[in-house]
From TrEMBL:
<feature type="region of interest" description="Disordered">
    <location>
        <begin position="82"/>
        <end position="103"/>
    </location>
</feature>
<dbReference type="GO" id="GO:0009001">
    <property type="term" value="F:serine O-acetyltransferase activity"/>
</dbReference>
<protein>
    <submittedName>
        <fullName>Serine O-acetyltransferase</fullName>
        <ecNumber>2.3.1.31</ecNumber>
    </submittedName>
</protein>
<dbReference type="InterPro" id="IPR008220">
    <property type="entry name" value="HAT_MetX-like"/>
</dbReference>
<feature type="domain" description="AB hydrolase-1">
    <location>
        <begin position="138"/>
        <end position="484"/>
    </location>
</feature>
<feature type="region of interest" description="Disordered">
    <location>
        <begin position="390"/>
        <end position="411"/>
    </location>
</feature>
<dbReference type="InterPro" id="IPR000073">
    <property type="entry name" value="AB_hydrolase_1"/>
</dbReference>
<comment type="similarity">
    <text>Belongs to the AB hydrolase superfamily. MetX family.</text>
</comment>
<keyword id="KW-0808">Transferase</keyword>
<dbReference type="GO" id="GO:0009092">
    <property type="term" value="P:homoserine metabolic process"/>
</dbReference>
<dbReference type="InterPro" id="IPR029058">
    <property type="entry name" value="AB_hydrolase_fold"/>
</dbReference>
<feature type="compositionally biased region" description="Polar residues">
    <location>
        <begin position="398"/>
        <end position="407"/>
    </location>
</feature>
<keyword id="KW-0012">Acyltransferase</keyword>
<dbReference type="Pfam" id="PF00561">
    <property type="entry name" value="Abhydrolase_1"/>
</dbReference>
<dbReference type="GO" id="GO:0004414">
    <property type="term" value="F:homoserine O-acetyltransferase activity"/>
</dbReference>
<dbReference type="GO" id="GO:0005739">
    <property type="term" value="C:mitochondrion"/>
</dbReference>
<dbReference type="GO" id="GO:0009086">
    <property type="term" value="P:methionine biosynthetic process"/>
</dbReference>
Amino acid sequence: MNIPKPIINILRGLPRAARSSKPRIRTDALQPWAARHSVHSNSRLSAQAAAVYATEPSIPDVPQSSNPQLAFPCLDNVEERTQKLSRRSMSGPEPSYTSGKHNTFRSHEPILLDWGGVLPRFDIAYETWGALNADKSNAVLLHTGLSASSHAHSTPDNPKPGWWEKFIGPGAPLDTNKYFVICTNVLGGCYGSTGPASLDPTSQQPYATSFPILTMHDMVRAQFRLLDYLSVNKLYASVGCSMGGMQSLAAGVIDSSRVGRIVSVSGCARSHPYSIAMRHTQRQVLMSDPNWANTRGNYYNSLPPHQGMKLAREIATVTYRSGPEWEKRFGRQRADPNRPPALCPDFLIETYLDHAGEKWCLEYDANSLLYVSKAMDLFDLGAQLQTATTERRRQNADKLQTSQTAPHESCSLVLPEKPYEEQDSSENIMASDQPSLAHLDSASEDLVQGMAALRDTPTLVVGVASDILFPAFQQREIAETLRKAGNRVVTHVEFGEDRSLFGHDTFLLDLDGVGGEIKKFLG
Ligand SMILES: CC(=O)SCCNC(=O)CCNC(=O)[C@H](O)C(C)(C)COP(=O)(O)OP(=O)(O)OC[C@H]1O[C@@H](n2cnc3c(N)ncnc32)[C@H](O)[C@@H]1OP(=O)(O)O
Ligand SMILES: N[C@@H](CCO)C(=O)O
């Protein structure tokens, strides 16, 4: 079997940890402990191996055990990373998160956010491919998923392949012979756009968790400022996948006259409780990392919450793919069946998740993850929420003059005095003929009203049956809602499990399927 390099690294974790933990060797305790916990057939431990076991921080000086102490290379790796980062933070500030060279648009005008926050000014990182035509009618705005940068495709300034490299280019689904493709890093992100890691112009310190709560609509309004700057009055198309699929719809709802057509892949019209739950667990794990919790997210001059980020990414990865894919890909195989089972990553699926977390934990800012994922939770195109938001924006409009927000005025969670009451009994849900949407009728009417602005906008909606994060019923909901709102130009495509088992990440991996539909739709 060809063992992927990351597995080899994971399996090699033990000796690496031994090197890293040298400074904490308790030489006095070493010999008696080693004698009790020897895992080698020889009674004498090598100095290095003894160091590994003798420096386990959580191992109490207990009486001799019946069986040897297990090793925890996965925890040793975390400690090793902490030590490396500590050395780095002593020699200077954390390096900024970057995906490479990009353009930056700076808005010197403040922006009022939906929940009352104000950014006195903001930057939007962006990249473009293809050429804007004379009447500026061929611009395609590509909205990203949660973790992506503006680097969707390689550029002369940054030849590194982008996250949608094969989907953009001459003859590709986003055909640069025809379209001027623009991709931005979202407001709140960490790849060049203003986000929690950016300096607050008022305090000259990173915003950290004084960054205001933001929404998908805020992100799109910031993008519209960029379009103003580029003199693009109307987009040929607003295209996005995952979180980008929320934004591509939001752009049309905010101003349908600016959006010629919409592509929403694996997106939704409102976040589903199950998706919120899955993001909630990621945020909770991340915020439990002492580096985050002890600073309440003000970690920029100390250690980032890398372990929390790693675990959050592992949970996220579980939501991005599918069980059937992993059945085929990894089955029940262990990384090294010749070793005894371990409590650290052991099965191939475990080492895969571990690697996904390792790779990402220092690549993305933890606070950006919190704010952007919360913005996803808050997404709802229903009329009621839009009306309430419009009213709140009206009430907060004068903040743009003063650029002042009352400190923490809306940040404290107050539980309602009246306890929560079940809205619907589980019996009703079980008894329903159509459990998927039947009990959501009144909410659906709200959505029809909220999306009425899109009644004339040609829209492509793509869903994937194996997606557990944005399940296929959510794309059906978009298409049905648009049709109910009177839209006669909705194309809805659903890929069954026979087509893709890649779950939510299908949009990153299925060029022919997803790319093919987009190409056909854009013409
Ligand atoms: C629109 C958007 O905004 S999304 C932004 C795009 N997101 C990203 O690019 C995030 C980072 N990348 C990813 O999440 C993934 O690489 C994807 C989704 C692009 C592709 O996932 P996969 O199909 O699993 O890719 P692949 O087969 O290359 O495996 C990923 C890595 O896991 C490693 N791997 C595979 N199996 C195992 C295993 N059993 N144990 C350990 N590592 C493993 C691979 O060697 C590879 O390592 P590398 O990335 O260091 O080269
Ligand atoms: N894999 C994608 C899924 C969310 O769009 C990401 O990393 O952002």
